[in-house]
Design brief:
The complex is a heterodimer of chains A (433) and B (144). Chain A is α/β, with parallel strands linked by helices and 433 residues long. In chain A, 32% of the residues lie in helices and 25% in strands. Chain A has 2 domains: 326 residues, ANL, N-terminal domain (Rossmann fold); 99 residues, ANL, C-terminal domain (GMP Synthetase, Chain A, domain 3). In chain A, α7 crosses α8. With 144 residues, chain B is α+β, with helices and mostly antiparallel strands. The chains are: A alpha/beta (433), B alpha+beta (144).
Amino acid sequence: MVSWDPRIEEMPKEDLQRLQYRLLKTLVYRLYSFSEFYHERMKAQGVHPDDITQLSDVRNLPFMFKSDLREHYPDWLFTAPQEELVRYHVSSGTTGKPTVVGYTQRDIDNWTTSLARGLTSCGLGRGDVIQVSYGYGLFTGGLGLHYGAERIGATVIPASVGNTERQIELMQDLRATAIACTPSYLLHMGEVAEKMGVSIKKDTSLRSAILGAEPWSEEMRTRIQEWLGVRAYDIYGTSELYGPLFCECSEQTGIHMWGDLALAEIIDPSTGEPLEPGERGELTVTMLQKEALPMVRFRIGDITQIDDAVCLCGRTHPRIKRIQGRVDDMLIIRGINVFPSQVEHALMGIQEVGSHFQIVVDRKSELDTMLIRVEVSPEAFSDRINDLMKIRNTVAQRLKGSLNVAVDVELVEPGSLPRFEGKAKRVIDRRKI
Amino acid sequence: METDQYVIKQISIFSENRPGRLAAIAQAMEEEKVNIFAFSIAEADQFGVVRALVNHTEKAHKKLTSMGFIVSFTDVIAVRMRDEPGGLYAIAKVLGEAQINIDYAYAYSGRDAAVLILRVNNVKDAITTLLEHGVTLIENSFFR
C-alpha cells in the first residue's frame, strides 16, 4: 500500500484520539475567545471550554446548521480577517440563500492534503492523468480536485463540465487514466461516447473514477465498473467542510474521514443524541483545523453510519458508509426511520418492476401504514394473476428486508407514476397527527 | 398431429383496478374497429388482467401499447361446448383425466353453441387429447 502520509494515516487509534482531543480543546478555546457567534452559542448551552475534558465531551457543544450560515450571510461567521483569506467559494443556493465559504492559505493546504491522501489511497499518483470534470469556479468541486491532483504529482486536465463530446476526445487524446465527476455525468459521458462510436472501456486508458457531489448507490457502482471498465470510488464533502474532501481507498469499503481534520459523530436526527457506534443516523462534523470558517458539530443533513474498525488497507481513521439519504426525507414508520433512498436501492435489484416508485404513508387505527406503488415492467408481465402476485410478494419481502418494516406493495401500470425533473417528490404522507 | 391451427392468440392487458380502465380499453378497440369476441377480467385487490379474444390482434396490441398499457399475447384454445347440462363436464373430465391443468377459463354463448376458452399448462397435449375424445375445437382462422 502506498500512503501519502503514513505517519498520520496509520497512526494508532489511541494516538489519533489524543490528537483529536488536543485539537478540539484548542479549537473550543479559540472560538470561545474570538467568535461572538460561538461564544454566545456556548453560553446559551451552558458549556465552557474548561468543561471539555475528554474527546466525547464534544457532545456537550451546541450544534450548527446550514441555516446559521445563511442567516450570517455573507461572512459574519468567519474567524479570520479578510486579508488572511486567499479564496472564496459560494454555494449555488438552490435550497435557499447562497452561502459563502472562505479559506486561509492553511485551509487550502489542509484541503489539498486531505485530497492528496485520498487520491493516493485509491491508487493514483505521479504518472496518472486526471480529468477533472467537476465545475470550476464558485463551486468547490473543480478547484478542490484540481489542487489535490496536482499535489500528488498527477497531470490534470481541467475539463470542467459540459461539452461532453470534446471531453471524450480529450480523454482519448491525452490518455486520461482517471476522471473526477458526478456519477450521473460519467454515465452520461458513457452514453455520449457510445453514440460517437467510442467505448470508454476499450478505447480509452481510463481505469479510475472519483465520483461524488450527489447521492449514488452500490448498484450504480457495479454498473459503472462493468460498463466503463473503471474502478469507481466514492468521494464526500460539502462546501462547508472545504469541499470534496474524503475519499474511499482501494478497498472500496467506506470513506476515510481523516481524524486529524474532522471529528465525525452520528446522532439521532430527531433527538440530537449521539448514537451507538455503527448505528445509522445523521452525520455531524466538527472540523478540527479550519481557520477561516470554523464548523463545530455541523449538521450536514446526510444519513450514514461510521465504521471505526481499522481498514484492510491499514489506515486507522474512521470510515463513513455511502450516504444513505437526507434527514429532510426521513419518514418515521411505527417508530422506525425509513428513507426513500432505501426503497430506491431495494427496487433497483428487482427486474420485474421499474425504478419509479411512490410511497404513500397513512395511519389506520393508530397504526402507520406504508404503501409502495411500483410499475410492473412490460417484460415481466404475465397474464396469470398468480405470477403477478408472486412479483408483488417478492417486492414486499425485499422491501421488508431492507427497511425492517412491513409494507404494502401495489403494482401499477408502467408510466402511470409521476416523473420528476430535478428533485423528486415521491412521498405522500396522509397521516394526520 | 397438426395442432397449430387450434392455437388462438389471446391478448392480455394489465390494468389497475379502478374506474374507467376498462372503458379506456374498450374505447380504444372501438376506435381501431377491433371486434371483441369474448373477454374476461381477473382481479387481484389493486390490479387486474383483462383477457380478450379479438379480431385484428396486432392492431389491438399496437394501439394499447401506444397508450401505455402492458399487453401480451397468450396461447389459448377455444372449445365448442354443448349448451346443455353436462356440456362443461364432458370437457373438464377429459382434461382432468389427462392430468392437464386449466389455469383459467371463460365462456361465451356463440350463435349455435357455447364456446369455452381455456388457458392450460400444456396447449399441445390439451388439443390432442380433446380431439381424440371427439371434442370440437375452433380454429384460429375463425377469430380473424
